[in-house]
UniProtKB/TrEMBL annotation:
It comes from Acinetobacter stercoris. This is Uncharacterized protein. It comes from the Bacteria. The lineage of its organism: Bacteria, Pseudomonadati, Pseudomonadota, Gammaproteobacteria, Moraxellales.
Length: 517
C-alpha cells in the first residue's frame, strides 16, 4: 500500500488503523451482493483466503445478475454507493469521503493548452496485423476468419463490417473526446489523432508521456486540448511544453472535474487509465467520480470503457454450447494427455469449461464465461467491475455508454509478468489469440466509433436490450477465451509451459491433431 497521505486512498481499517485493499474490496463486493444473496455476502465478508477464492464471489455477482433483469441495476447501485462511501481523499491534512470530493476547494486551476496536428489528410482506417495493413477485402477476410475461429463474437464482426461500410464515421471533427490515461498503450489516441478528433488528453505530468502524446498529435490531423497550471504560448515547441502539461487523477480529482465541466462541447469520456496493483482500483474510482460529476453537469456526455477478457461475464447461450462442444471434440490423444496431467495436479489443471446455463426472468437462458486469472489478483478484478457497474447504471439512466471487451494484448503491463507473458505466447494451443497493441488499438478504436455513430448500437440507450448484461456481452473480442474447452485459469500453467518450450517441443501437433487420428 502507498504511504502517501495525499489524494485518493483506501480507507484505514478501524481495528488496525492501516489501509487494506483486500478488506475494502470484500466490503464493496459484499454490499453489492447483500440484497440479491445475503448468505453469500456474509460468507464473503468472512473469507480468509481472499486472494485465492475471490473468483467464486465475482462469479456469484454474474449468476445473480443473470437471474433477474433488475438485479444488475441493484448490484451496481449497491457496489458503487459502498465504494463512494469507503474511499477517502486527503488534502492539506484533511480527510474527506470520496463522495464529497467535488466540494473540496480547488487549490489549482487548469488552463487549456491547444495543440494542432500538422497534417490535413482525410481520415482512414486499417488494421495492422502480422506486418500487414488490412483494409477492404483483406480486412473482411480476416474478420471472417476470426469469427469462424471463435476469436471474436458475431456482434463484434458485424460492428467492424459496419464501420467498413461507413468510412464517413471516421470524421470526428464534431466530437470532443476525453481520454483519461491518454498515453495508454492499449488506448485509441493514435487513431483519434488521424480522424480529426478534438482530443482532451489527461495523463500524468511526465515529460516522456507528453512527448509521446504531442508527437502523435503533431503527426495527425486532430486538435489536442491539454491541462496546464499556467497559460502557455501557442507557438512553443514540443520540447518546450512536454514538461508543463498534465494532471494527476489521484490527487487532482476536483480540479480535473471542474475543468472539464467548463468545456462548452458535448464530451465523450473514455476511462482507459491503468496503474499496477491497488492503484488500479484507486484510479478507476477517480475516473468514476469525475465521469459521474461531468455527466451530472453535462447529461449529454457519453461514457466509454474497455473490458478485459480475463474476467467473468454473462454470455449468450450459444457461446456456452460452443465451449462444451469443443471439449467433447478433443482428439483421443489430447484427452489422454490432459487427463494424465489433471490427475498429477490433483485435478487442478484442465478443468472442463462446462458452465451451466442460467434462466433469466426475461425467458432467456445465458451462460457464464469464467476467464478470471488468479495471478491478476482481486484488485484488478474490482477495478474492472467498478467500470462495469457504472456502465450498466449509466445506460439504465439513459446515457450513451460504449463498453466493449478487448482481446488479451501484449502490452508492457501484461508482458512484464513472466507467467502471463509465457501463457499468452502459448495461448494459440487452445485456440486463443493474444493481439499486439497496434492491432487492439485499431479494432477497439473502430468499435468506439461504431458505438457513437451507429444509432442501432447497444451503446444507444434507446436501442432495445432484453437484459442489462447484454450491453457488455455485445461486441466482444475476447480472443477466443469465451469458447475454450477448459476453464481458462486451469489451462494457463500448461499454456505458459508451452509458451516457453514451443520452439523445442512438438506439443502443438499433439493438441491440434484431429479427432480419431
Amino acid at each position: 500500500m502507498s504511504n502517501s497521505i495525499d489524494g485518493l486512498q483506501f480507507p484505514l481499517q478501524s481495528d488496525t488503523q492501516k489501509a487494506s485493499s483486500s478488506e475494502t474490496g470484500k466490503a464493496i463486493l459484499a454490499e453489492a451482493l447483500c440484497i440479491v444473496d445475503n448468505k453469500t455476502s456474509q460468507q464473503l465478508l468472512h473469507e480468509k483466503n481472499w486472494r485465492k477464492q475471490y473468483p467464486r464471489y465475482f462469479k456469484a455477482l454474474v449468476e445473480h445478475g443473470i437471474r433477474n433483469t433488475s438485479n444488475p441495476i441493484t448490484i451496481a447501485k449497491q457496489g458503487l454507493h459502498k465504494a463512494q462511501n469507503s474511499f477517502e481523499f486527503y488534502r492539506d491534512g484533511h480527510c474527506y469521503l470520496l463522495k464529497d470530493v467535488m466540494e473540496i476547494p480547488a487549490i489549482d486551476q487548469f488552463e487549456t493548452f491547444k495543440f494542432q496536428g500538422q497534417h490535413q489528410s482525410e481520415p482512414e482506417w486499417y488494421v495492422p496485423y502480422h506486418g500487414q495493413k488490412l483494409q477492404g477485402q483483406s480486412l473482411l477476410t480476416q474478420i471472417q476468419i476470426w469469427e469462424e475461429k471463435g476469436i471474436i463474437e458475431p456482434s463484434h464482426a458485424k460492428a467492424l463490417r459496419e464501420v467498413i461500410d461507413h468510412p464517413e464515421w471516421f470524421d470526428l471533427s464534431d466530437r470532443t473526446m476525453v481520454l483519461f490515461g491518454a498515453g495508454s498503450e492499449a488506448g485509441p489516441l493514435t487513431w483519434l489523432a488521424k480522424w480529426k478528433a478534438n482530443i482532451i488528453a489527461i495523463d500524468l505530468p511526465n515529460a516522456k508521456v507528453w512527448q509521446k502524446i504531442l508527437t502523435t498529435i503533431q503527426q495527425g490531423n486532430a486538435t489536442l486540448y491539454a491541462p496546464a497550471l499556467e497559460q502557455l504560448p501557442s507557438n512553443l515547441s514540443i520540447d518546450e511544453i512536454k514538461d508543463k502539461l498534465g494532471a494527476n487523477l489521484l490527487t487532482q480529482i476536483p480540479e480535473i472535474a471542474h475543468w472539464l465541466v467548463q468545456n462548452p462541447h458535448k464530451l465523450d469520456l473514455a476511462a482507459i487509465a491503468y496503474l499496477d496493483g491497488e492503484k488500479h482500483v484507486r484510479v478507476s474510482m477517480a475516473m468514476d467520480s469525475i465521469m459521474q460529476y461531468v455527466s451530472d453537469q453535462k447529461p449529454d456526455s457519453s461514457l466509454m470503457y474497455m473490458c478485459t477478457p480475463t474476467d467473468v461475464y454473462a454470455v449468450p447461450k450459444e457461446v456456452t454450447e460452443a465451449s462444451i462442444q469443443k471439449y467433447q471434440d478433443r482428439s483421443k490423444l489430447q484427452k489422454s494427455v490432459t487427463k494424465g496431467i489433471s490427475s498429477l495436479s490433483l485435478k487442478q489443471m484442465f478443468k472442463p469449461n462446462q458452465q451451466k446455463l442460467i434462466s433469466s426472468d426475461n425467458g432467456k437462458a445465458y451462460g457464464i464465461a469464467d476467464c478470471l486469472v488468479i495471478e491478476q489478483g482481486p484488485n484488478y478484478a474490482l477495478a474492472k467491475r467498478i467500470q462495469q457497474w457504472r456502465a450498466t447504471l449509466a445506460r439504465h439512466h439513459g446515457q450513451m455508454v460504449s463498453i466493449n471487451i478487448a482481446p488479451s494484448t501484449t502490452t508492457h503491463s501484461v508482458t512484464k509478468n513472466p507467467l502471463l507473458k509465457a501463457a499468452f505466447s502459448g495461448a494459440n494451443l487452445f485456440d486463443v489469440e493474444a493481439f499486439l497493441p497496434e492491432t487492439t488499438n485499431a479494432l477497439m478504436a473502430a468499435l468506439w466509433i461504431h458505438d457513437l455513430k451507429n444509432p442501432k448500437s447497444v451503446a444507444n440507450p434507446h436501442a432495445n436490450l432484453e437484459h442489462p448484461l447484454e450491453l457488455i456481452m455485445s461486441g466482444a473480442n475476447h480472443g477466443g477465451l469465451w469458447r475454450v474447452a477448459y476453464l481458462a485459469r486451469t489451462a494457463l500453467p500448461f499454456a505458459a509451459l508451452y509458451g516457453l518450450a514451443k520452439d523445442k517441443l512438438p506439443i502443438e501437433k499433439l493438441f491440434k491433431r484431429k479427432q480419431g487420428s
